[in-house]
Amino acid sequence: MRRLTPYLLALPSWMWLAIFLVVPMVAMASVSLQTGNAIDGFAMTFSFSNYSDALGRYSTQLVRSLFYGGMATVAMLVIGYPVAYWIAFKGGRRKSMYLFLILLPFFVSFVLRTISWNFLLADNGILFGTLKGWGLLPDDFHVLATTVAVVGGLTYNFLPFMILPIYVSLERVDPRVVEAAQDLYATRVGAFRRVVLPLSLPGVFAGVLMTFVPATADPINAAILGGTANTMIGNIIQTEYLTNLNYPTASALSFTLMAVLLVGIFIYARALGTENVLEAAAR
Amino acid sequence: MTTSAIELENVVKEYLSHGEVVQAVKGVSLDIAEGEFFSLLGPSGCGKTTTMRMIAGFEAPSKGLVKLHGQDVTNVPPNKRDVNMVFQSYALFPHMSVWDNVAFGLKQRKTPQDEIKRRVGEMLEIVDLTGREKRRPREMSGGQQQRVALARALVNRPRALLLDEPLGALDLKLRQAMQIELKRIQREVGITFVYVTHDQNEALTMSDRIAVMNDGLVEQLAGPREIYERPATAFVAGFIGTSNLLAGSATGGELKIGGGRVLVPGHEGDVRVTVRPEKITIGTEEPSNGLSAVRGTVAEVVYLGTYNSYAVSLADGADATERSEGANQTQHGNRDDRAAARGGTIITVFQQNALDAMATAERGDSVWLSWQAQHSYVIGS
């Protein structure tokens, strides 16, 4: 009995995962191979052509999503790493306060935050309207409904998920190890490159994972900040599901996206050296 | 006079702590000779580590100068100083193998590949780690990590090696073995060692000279024997080993204490005298005239293997005090409390357990304590 206790304690979580993750996935996988329509119902026909059809129609949006997600991830890395570094090494006694500030936007709903960006970036809004009034910007200048707006929105919305894991890995770097590198003739830059950066790679890996995946699949930023030329795969899936009631196509697209992301993550982990990442994480 | 490896001139380090200026180091001047094994000894918070960090370049002095081999390096960053440090917790690079850890400094200095290979190999041999090049630091024992840290610093052939309590994390046996090992390596490579420790035994065992620090100042700078035999201040007497401190007013070169006398030739007026416990002889007969002699009652006998420790309560000690610290802190601490409660003076005596054990006094015995005049050391402050 005692030996079973840990398993029994884990049972609720396993059941949760089974019911709310595995069952819907299996259901969706099955739907992705069905044909029919919302009125007459769907029937299982093992039509793998659902996948090729969906990809044929929406490959532009899929590629665009990966591109936007990738750009946003790079932007988050460039912005987030220095912030995490600064908090970890220069934060002093105020560290928790800075971390709280990083998390503060989460107290406002995701959609509202994105809409406020819409206000901010509006063609004649607070920012550009004023600048145009002063003659600092041409009248036809606009950001909304462009790639910049969507990638900017994604970057803004997912940034904390990049900062936090990097912060955690940097926080664990012993400052004396950095001193040791400097004592052994490394410049500040050299010490960062040879010691701090490699030791923070597990955090970078986690941060990229936690931002690239949701940013690529996100429908909200493209819907609120983008135009018709910025539609992402998330928007297509949403429309197919909720508007067109074309469940097979929506499911096929979802699975395609998942597969592409998994392959991408796998390649990324290989490139970064899984061994190093795992080893450093195990410290 | 040999050449100076490291000179500190009136070095002061101030910190801002909660809006107040705190002096961690209050004006330290040192002159450490080439090839010397020099120790900075003191309790935690005495400024010894800060002093070392200023030599390494991790802290800039608020005032004063740091010179390495006659060159002023006060404002030179650590990566441009020809000294290397062994950190208290080793600070090995966790993501690198032993080999890469040791080769780090040489690579940073763009040493040719084949020379790196040769020197790292040689150094790993010196610290007895050949065959473990590919290990990661966390796969090694504390003693091995310690040796990697040592090799990583020494392989660069620095003109001075700074060691910050490098043996603190090791157990007693390993620590003693490493003490001998360190001394051997120092002789072998002939590099100046600056050693920070709070362990008096470590400092006495290994050092050529010791600077005893307290509260940001050097209390005494001398060789181990002198530090032990002739402590300059009450602090040094108390911090290094166990010591009896007697105070009183001397007349005619004698201090009247405990129904007897302490000989202090050439001193008049208020004096303070230290006597090491092992210099004192315990007996039942009144000793001859040429000796310092006091009378008391044995309050406690503690058997300590190679020697017995006696606590002798003086017959009259109204204006005498006793103080001891160090190895037997707990035991003495307790006794001090009791002595204080009775208002008497307690003298600690160590008597070796030789075959012909002389007076084996027991608790409650009335005894004479005697020692030669030269073993009473009148301290300054």
TrEMBL record, chain A:
Gene Ontology CC terms, in alphabetical order: plasma membrane
Subcellular locations according to the entry: Cell membrane
Alphabetic keyword roster: Cell membrane, Membrane, Transmembrane, Transmembrane helix, Transport
Superkingdom of the source species: Bacteria
CDD domains recorded: TM_PBP2 (cd06261)
Protein topology in the membrane: Multi-pass membrane protein
Name of protein: ABC transporter permease
Organism this protein belongs to: Nonomuraea turkmeniaca
From TrEMBL, chain B:
EC identifiers of the protein: 7.6.2.11
GO cellular component: ATP-binding cassette (ABC) transporter complex
Annotated catalysed reactions: ATP + H2O + polyamine-[polyamine-binding protein]Side 1 = ADP + phosphate + polyamineSide 2 + [polyamine-binding protein]Side 1
Keyword Nucleotide-binding in annotation: yes
A single MF term (Gene Ontology): ABC-type putrescine transporter activity
Cited function: Part of the ABC transporter complex PotABCD involved in spermidine/putrescine import. Responsible for energy coupling to the transport system.
Subunit structure: The complex is composed of two ATP-binding proteins (PotA), two transmembrane proteins (PotB and PotC) and a solute-binding protein (PotD).
Entry protein name: Spermidine/putrescine import ATP-binding protein PotA
Lineage of the species this protein comes from: Bacteria, Bacillati, Actinomycetota, Actinomycetes, Streptosporangiales
